[in-house]
Write a structure and sequence with these properties.
Elements lengths: L1 H5 L37 E5 L4 H12 L6 E6 L7 E4 L2 E4 L1 E2 L10 E4 L3 H13 L3 E4 L33 E4 L3 H17 L6 H14 L7 H13 L4
Parallel strand pairs: 1-2, 1-6, 2-5, 6-7, 7-8
Antiparallel strand pairs: 3-4
Helix pairs in contact: 4-6, 5-6
């Protein structure tokens, strides 16, 4: 999830620093703080799965970073529609996610599960929205850039907000992001040009053991690493 939000400052609109762990979001402006996030000429945003834990964290990071937006839609399932959320001192009503939800939306942050992403991600793209997806739905799709902004921002260099052209951006799972944030500087320093998937797997097993994160989904992890590090240069 942190990588999803970090994607939002690369190129003309996204940042290069992963947010640190923070308490549950409060969204209220601190006393005396001037908010610069709500701007008339900024992108329009939608948060899909806003009532979930990751959706709430999306809002927290957007607020903490003063991410510029001109409007924001709170989207969730039919069951959650009608709930009220306060974000940056303004009350919003959660809307049911539909195909029409993305009309006029520049950026949509998805974290509502793979099935929802597969159904509504392409719909949003067809309506001109840039989708940043936090699920596993598109991680293995070679036509969708798999991006960690601090590692391979060039993978989305042709994606620009405000052009009216939709696009999908995926981010790897949390263990891949953690590993590559540590491993990429070593990879760049060693100037490794090519290597086998077995090499990546062995390397990650050793790294995971050293980080005491345990070993799980190592095979998928190696595929994600291969896509992020090598991209189309394989």
């Amino acid at each position: 999830m942190a990588s999803s939000l970090s994607l939002l400052r690369q190129n003309t609109f996204l940042s290069a620093t992963l947010p640190t762990t923070r308490p549950r979001p409060k969204y209220a402006s601190a006393a005396g703080r001037v908010r610069m996030s709500l701007q008339e000429n900024a992108p329009t945003i939608a948060v899909v799965g806003v009532t979930g834990a990751v959706g709430q964290e999306f809002l927290s990071v957007l607020s903490d970073r003063d991410f510029p937006y001109s409007s924001i839609k709170m989207l969730a399932s039919k069951r959650s529609a009608g709930r009220r959320l306060t974000f940056e001192d303004k009350e919003y009503v959660v809307e049911e996610l539909t195909a029409e939800s993305f009309d006029g939306v520049d950026i949509a942050l998805f974290s509502a599960g793979g099935s929802i992403s597969k159904e509504f991600g392409p719909i949003a793209v067809n309506r001109g929205t840039i989708v940043v997806d936090n699920s596993s739905a598109f991680r293995m799709d070679e036509n969708v850039p798999l991006v960690i902004p601090e590692v391979n921002p060039e993978a989305m260099e042709k994606i620009k907000v405000g052009m009216g052209k939709g696009a999908l951006i995926a981010n790897p799972n949390c263990s891949t992001i953690i590993c590559l944030m540590a491993a990429t500087p070593l990879h760049r320093h060693a100037k490794v040009r090519s290597f086998s998937r077995d090499f990546i797997t062995d390397f990650l097993i050793q790294l995971l053991v050293l980080l005491k994160n345990g070993i799980f989904h190592v095979y998928n992890l190696s595929i994600y690493v291969e896509r992020v590090w090598l991209g189309d240069k394989k």
